[in-house]
Amino acid sequence: MPRVLQVNTPDGTQSLVVRDLLAMRAAGQRAAVTAIIRMVRDLKASGRDSRYALPLKGLPLWELKTRSRGGEKGGARVYFFWRVDGVPVLCGAEVKDDDEASRHLLMEALRAYRDYTAKRQEEGNGGEE
User: Fold this and answer.
1) Sheet harboring 53-55: ordered strands across?
2) Ramachandran region of residue 90, left (φ > 0), alpha (ψ -120 to 50) or beta?
3) Residue 5 β-bridge partners
4) Pick from 1, 13, 70: which is nearest to 42 by CA?
5) pTM for the whole thing?
6) What digits encode the pLDDT tens for the residues 20-51?
């Protein structure tokens, strides 16, 4: 079964997605937490063929979104990018009523992607996918 990686918080104490899921649970958004777990399981099982996975226009990021491709109603989403080897790296999660992504979470995900590409360049592997 393919694997899924996660980006840690700056202090390294937990993954960004776990941080976000714990906040959702504390806010009583259990349905969103359940939807996110279901989407991540589908991503792990199906990879790029996940029914929830969609690329974000103009960015090297993707999102798992419950409303994508005829999915369930709701605004649960997970932001991630693909490593060169095809492994998805989860960078954050949220639940929203509108269709706009959280700027803060997108910036965290972009930072994680840039860190990944910079590390690849330092290792001599190139940064482009």
Assistant:
1) 5-6, 88-95, 76-82, 62-65, 53-55
2) beta
3) 89
4) 1
5) 0.85
6) 999 999 999 999 999 999 999 999 999 999 99
